[in-house]
Amino acid sequence: MGSAEQDEYAAFNEKVRRTVFLDNLSPLVTESVVRTALDQYGTVKSVEFIPNYLEPRNMPRCALVEMEKQKQAEVVISTLSELPFMMSGMPRPVRACAAVPEMFGDRPRKPGRQLHVHWLAPSDPNAEVANKLKKLVKKHATETAVMLKHQLEKEEKLAKQQGETLKANCKKYEMIDTLMADGTVRRLARRYNLRISDDSGPSTFH
Amino acid sequence: MAEVGGTEDLEFKWGKKKGIGGRKKDVQFYESFTYDGVDYALYDNVYLYMEGEPLPHLGKLIKIWETGDKSKKVKVLWFFRPEEISNYLVDELAHPNEIFLASGDGVGLANVNPLEAIVGKCNVICISKDSRNPQPSDGDIQMAEFVFYRTFDVGLRTISDKIDEKIAGTEVKFIFNLPGSLKPSSVHNFSVDDKNASEKAIGTNGRVILSKLNTSEDQIPEEDRQEEQKPVVAENLAPSELQENGFNYKTASSFKVEENSDLKVSSVKPNVSQREKLVSGVVTESGGLAKRNDRQENTSGDKTGFSRNVKENANSSAEKIGHVNQVKFDEKLKSVKDTSELDERPHKKAKLDSSVKVSNDKESLRRPTDPRGTAKNSSNKPKIEDKLTKPTNCKTPAMPPNDGKRTGDKVVAVTRMPVSDRSSWFGEIPWEERMQDAHEQGKLVLFQNLDPTYSSADVEDIVWTAFKKTCRAKVVQQTACSSPHSGQAFTIFDTREVAEEVITKLDKGCLLLPNQRPLVASIPNPCFSRKQSMFAGHLIVDKLKSQREMKEAVSTSHCSQPNTLEYDMAMEWCLMAETSNVFWKKLYEQQGKEIKRVKGNFKSK
After folding, report:
1. What pairing do the DSSP bridges indicate for beta strands A19-25 and A95-98?
2. pLDDT, tens digit, for every residue of A72-125?
3. Helix (H) or strand (E) holding B299
4. A159 phi and psi, to 5 degrees?
5. Which candidate, B406, B413, B401, B361, places its Cα nearest to that of B385?
6. Is the Cβ pair A89, B554 closer than 8 Å?
7. A156: contact with B, CB 8 A cutoff
8. How many CB atoms lie within 10 A of CB A157?
9. Is B462 on the interface with A (CB under 8 A)?
10. Following CA atoms A108, A114, A119, A124 in sequence, which dihedral angle do they give, to the nearest 10 degrees?
11. Please, are residues B39 and B246 in contact by the beta-carbon 8 Å criterion?
């Protein structure tokens, strides 16, 4: 019986080791997108999106992707951290890191773990300390929430900024395009005696 | 309390006599007896009931006698449950039901209890590989409720797998499995006198006694030992004289019902103090014993003194109130047994950590109102202090005697929530919908400050242990930036009332989880809408929207190549992610420090 529990836990640990945690996913990313994206590195066994009930709604989504082998998970992680990896949009890349047991909602108990709880009597001097700790927990939760909000704001700001830069860039390329198209470039080149024979067409977004 | 008088009639019969001892030669030793339809013999392993503690203590009978004033006593060598000595337990348990035999010298080794404290037999098998130990079969081990092979030295507080030649004056052969005892379902470690057997052979539990094992050869050394033990016997008499004092209280208590209920609570301490008495009792200075009792006579005036005083008569009070409890308890035991057999889970039902001695010294419960006990013992064993003080605490009128939920300062080992209705839950409505419903009905509670490594099942068990309420819990899955300090879990209770009760209780009181985490509960405000429209960071170039190339780029995934605009922008995101990481790390470091600082204020340890 005990060993069954241990086996279960060992199996779970195996699963954790071959799982990749994906972060900063767009809401457009579906299981099939993840599968197609990561199939090149190995077989995706399962994809589980981590539900987000407590954090702001515009939080990027996260997912646990279980690969067939631990090795494959390692490859995914190293590839995705070497080069920015786009999924269902750009330019914000997806982040990948190794999963840890705490990320799994259905994790089994640790075998052999015996927990103890006890009620502190109100008269207990430690009750005061405990109450302070309780307050601290709430305070920390608020801090975390604020931090998260701050992070999201920063991200939005960056996105906005990038959007503007992109727009400006697009405008620039557009302008170049038109200048090329209506012959202004050639005329100018002739005027300044420059050679533009090789066709340096406008670079696209890529 | 009407049946109080009747408890004396609880079926009882002495078995085989052993020897006579005591100063006045009025102590009769026995090898066996029948109590409440069950035959007990020397060296049987038994459950001993301690008032106020849902789980009985485990011990081995190493002496049985009747004193001059007809009170029945047993001397019990204790077993420790792993949670009782968890502070000293480094290695993994070798077996889910492993327990530890007390050894060495000191408090908690063995002590004298009223025979009536016994509630049943316990099948304990020794799995020591020691050559002196008759090896049990796999079947034996499977049948066993508990197994042991290691000892816990109560003096040195160490765990060892060596078993000494003698523990508490008991030869090791009686500690190991006894030949003949290794039969499934037989808990007899020693034969019972067959005369007795013939009369009482068929106990209510239908156990048939193995008779006549006790041959005369066996008996002679037995008697010898008896002689050796005489001095001890004399000492043991001392308490029995004191018993008379006890009787006063006894009668007093039976007059007053409230008083009685008080006693109920307090009779934990009898045992407690009994164990403590071991310091002097077992280690044998009867003088000390007597003295102590004198002392207690003195203190009997005040309430706390009284409660401690009940001590030796311990369960003379239990004996009075006893009947009801006993029956109740028997049932409890049975059900424990049943369930453990049925679902093959480790037999760990609701249990109070009986020997708070170990775990409780964490939070030093020194009560100002308890000058005597603490003063006396503090010198040698801090643990005892706790033991002594705890009762006083329980006594405080604020604590309603029968309120099972408020267990006072006792450390409670977390037991598993009954699984009965869990099966039907699986595969029904998805968790999210259930949670949504529960939230609408006010049954959803968010727990915070859990150890992030707890599983959902752990949370359910904790709730079950602390509130005796079933629930369905699900831990909040952590992400890359979740707090490493506080795990969270959603819990669905059966009704709104229960949910509110739990929140209020946790708000007003303090439930301390391991590692000094007070549990925090609140009503969450989760958002269920899966529609997430906003996502910062993905840009779409309006002009290119319609182009095939762009569409492809969006719908497929790819690595950016380092000579593109996309790559540059991606790098900005990576940079931001890294800075955020640093921020989070700093924040959690800071929070960790704050927590540590506050925790430092916990008294003792």
Report:
1. antiparallel
2. 999 999 988 888 898 888 788 999 999 999 999 888 888 888 888 888 887 888
3. helix B286-299
4. -60, -45
5. B361
6. yes
7. yes
8. 12
9. yes
10. -130
11. no
